[in-house]
Amino acid sequence: MFGFLGPNGAGKTTTIGMLCTLVRPSGGAAYVAGHDIVGERDEVRRDIGLVFQDPTLDAYLTAEQNLRFHGELYGLPREAMNERIAQVLQMVDLADRKDDKVETFSGGMKPHRDHRSR
Ligand SMILES: Nc1ncnc2c1ncn2[C@@H]1O[C@H](COP(=O)(O)OP(=O)(O)OP(=O)(O)O)[C@@H](O)[C@H]1O
Ligand SMILES: [Mg+2]
């Protein structure tokens, strides 16, 4: 676990935004897992996992449809998609709810900022 501390307005959010390639730095350089955050943005994105403060689920889609959508966004190869979706659903104990819309899920079943480890 890594704590990133500083006074209000010190630039923490900005720094994390740059390291996640969401904010373009006006100068300097930084590397994540050996990749330049400006020149190798896609490689950096592939190497990090980001949990957003707000849920990024589409409530009117099913659990499986949400995973498929994000898999497509991340460029997961078609032939790997079904297996990976099944693995993730298994991992979070939601395989039996894969065809249910996310709006029917309880808070703890959705990954968001209040998500407890399960
Ligand atoms: N390296 C920098 N040089 C100049 N301005 C910066 C730099 N980093 C951040 N800023 C500016 O400083 C302001 C505060 O930055 P930021 O929101 O990242 O701070 P923070 O540490 O997250 O603050 P808080 O603790 O209040 O959330 C923003 O307007 C941002 O654009
Ligand atoms: Mg901040």
From TrEMBL:
> What Gene3D superfamilies does the entry give?
P-loop containing nucleotide triphosphate hydrolases
- Pfam families reported for this sequence: ABC_tran (PF00005)
Q: Which residues form the ABC transporter domain?
A: 2-110
Query: What GO MF annotations does this protein's record show?
Result: ATP binding; ATP hydrolysis activity
The record, for InterPro entries, names: ABC_transporter-like_ATP-bd, P-loop_NTPase
Q: What is the protein name stated in its UniProt record?
A: ABC transporter domain-containing protein
Species of the source: Actinoallomurus iriomotensis
